[in-house]
């Protein structure tokens, strides 16, 4: 007879597998290509720029901020105006690395 802890672990593992499977299965009919491209660029540009500058952690922070801002705006307003905010982050990164 399995213990309660073992049952909980098994349920947790099953839930984690379902989450990963759902995340990896694209919803092609619901895909908004413009949003996907903008999010990709908003995440990739800071990562690449900071990696080239030798400061990947700064890029990871900027990329995460861009993604959260875009997703929140899409959820709350249905718009894609986060590019103005990524410009602010880009200028901050350039200023930090040009000193």
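Sequence proposed for the structure above (99 residues):
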């Amino acid at each position: 007879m399995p213990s309660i802890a073992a049952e909980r672990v098994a349920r947790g593992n099953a839930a984690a597998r379902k989450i990963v499977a759902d995340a990896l299965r694209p919803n092609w009919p619901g895909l908004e290509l413009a949003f996907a491209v903008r999010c990709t660029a908003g995440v990739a540009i800071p990562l690449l720029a900071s990696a080239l500058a030798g400061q990947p952690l700064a890029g990871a922070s900027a990329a995460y901020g861009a993604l959260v801002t875009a997703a929140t705006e899409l959820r709350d307003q249905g718009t894609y105006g986060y590019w103005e905010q990524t410009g602010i982050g880009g200028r901050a990164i350039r200023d930090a690395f040009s000193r």
